[in-house]
Design goal:
It comes from Mesonia profundi. Keywords: Cell membrane, Membrane, Transmembrane, Transmembrane helix. This protein has about 425 residues and is mostly helical. It is built from 17 helices and no strands. Helix 6 packs parallel to helix 8. The longest helix is centred in the N-terminal third of the chain and has 53 residues. The relative contact order is 0.12.
Length: about 425
């Protein structure tokens, strides 16, 4: 029985990627859980809320610096991975674009570091953290692009090894700096982790150094830039709107309830991010390259159904287990001080389930550059979540935010299912 099961995994590409990736995700989850425990012990709910604000701000700035084209890089590389000269042209374009935009954004962030600090932390005291973020932007952007190239080339093992080593490095660095520098040490780790990962990425990307031969600065082929701009527009809308929405919701919680309650919500969100990470990484590693390289509409239906059949049942069971053991999880990951978080699990888990159901379909919009559809659905979920959160917060208190999360993700799933009803339920073309 066991050999047959192992052979079944090896023969199925989706399960093979998932099983390989599980080790990396498990390591990242373990590192993240230990980091959450340390943060809870040394900084409490308020510290967790502030780190959440920094992460949202950093994600927003990193997306601007990378022009939001990471998925475009994966898609273009996947389509041309058998053409060496074309790959070199693509790499040259990504390098030039990333370097130029990240420097421009970095200079802007550096010039307005005090204002950015006040927006994120409600104080100018951390302007130096924003300066550090601005300086690291070019390195962070190039790291994102090289990782995207490896994904596009379907070199999953290297991406997985990079993620494992990065997780271990993150845990070690965070623990040391948090112990000696407190909250500021935690901030520094959040900012510098991508730069540290860049060194690791360069080591594992050695077989592909030929892509950087004859590299030219400021190389912008019009056709490629035009194509990438569509991916950039899609990702920018998503990556700007969601961090802003999360910052806005966290502020509403602080104003309506307290900073401690904002920390409870961030603690729930951090737990959610750990298991969501497994699902998103599988979609990024397997689904996006496959959909990007697909030449027939039926591939979309086959890929979605394969994901639902092989992955979603395990995901659903995992969510049930998490809910049953929520009290134990909180005590292990955080502390008894965070026990009020257990009231937030039901709404969060329901929302996360429908989010993944929708997300695997949404990646077809990235793969086929369906810009209008993607922007419309992303704005729907972002604006809807903020509006429902503010409304339910006044009625249900902190639990209202997670039920807003559940409601908007259920509606999001129905909307996406409606959009793709023809390719999923008939033989019609997209």
């Amino acid at each position: 029985m066991r050999p047959k099961f192992i052979n079944y995994i090896k023969e199925n590409p989706l399960l093979k990627v998932t099983s390989l990736n599980s080790g990396a995700i498990l390591m990242k989850m373990m590192a993240g859980l230990v980091i959450s425990k340390l943060t809870a012990y040394f900084l409490g709910p308020v510290g967790i809320a502030l780190i959440g604000n920094l992460r949202n701000g950093q994600n927003l700035i990193n997306t601007l610096a990378s022009s939001g084209i990471q998925k475009g890089v994966v898609s273009h590389i996947a389509k041309g991975k058998d053409k060496k000269k074309f790959l070199q042209i693509l790499t040259n374009t990504f390098f030039s674009l990333g370097l130029l935009v990240s420097i421009v954004v970095g200079v802007f962030i550096f010039a307005f570091n005090a204002e950015v600090s006040h927006y994120i932390f409600k104080t100018n005291s951390y302007a130096w953290i924003i300066t550090l973020l601005a300086i690291s932007l070019p390195i962070n952007t190039l790291n994102l692009f090289i990782l995207s190239i490896l994904q596009g080339l379907s070199d999953f093992k290297k991406v997985i090894y990079i993620n494992i080593i990065t997780s271990i490095s993150n845990l070690v660095l965070f623990s040391i700096l948090l112990y000696f520098l407190g909250l500021e040490g935690a901030f520094v780790t959040v900012i510098l982790l991508s730069s540290l990962q860049f060194i690791i990425t360069l080591f594992y990307a050695r077989p592909y150094y030929y892509l950087f031969e004859n590299l030219k600065l400021f190389y912008f082929p019009k056709k490629i830039i035009s194509s990438l701009s569509k991916y950039g527009l899609m990702t920018l809308i998503s990556s700007i709107s969601f961090p802003l929405v999360y910052l806005g919701v966290r502020r509403e919680i602080m104003l309506t309830l307290s900073s401690t309650d904002a920390g409870y919500w961030e603690a729930m969100s951090r737990l959610s991010s750990h298991y969501i990470l497994l699902m998103v990484s599988v979609i990024n590693l397997y689904v996006l390259p496959k959909l990007s390289a697909a030449k027939h509409t039926k591939t979309f239906k086959e890929t979605v159904l394969e994901f639902y059949k092989l992955i979603i049942p395990f995901y659903a069971v995992g969510l049930v287990v998490i809910y049953v053991f929520r009290n134990f999880i909180i005590r292990v990951v955080y502390s008894e001080e965070f026990l009020p978080v257990q009231d937030l699990f039901l709404g969060q888990l329901i929302g996360d389930f429908f989010y993944i159901l929708a997300l695997v379909m949404v990646y077809q919009m990235h793969a086929k550059r369906q810009v209008k559809r993607f922007i419309a659905t992303d704005l729907f979920i972002a604006i809807g979540f903020y509006a429902f959160s503010v409304y339910f917060l006044g009625i249900l208190g902190l639990e209202g935010v997670v039920y807003a999360h559940a409601l908007i993700n259920f509606l999001y799933f129905l909307l996406v299912l409606t959009i793709f009803r023809k390719p999923l339920f008939s033989h019609s073309k997209l």
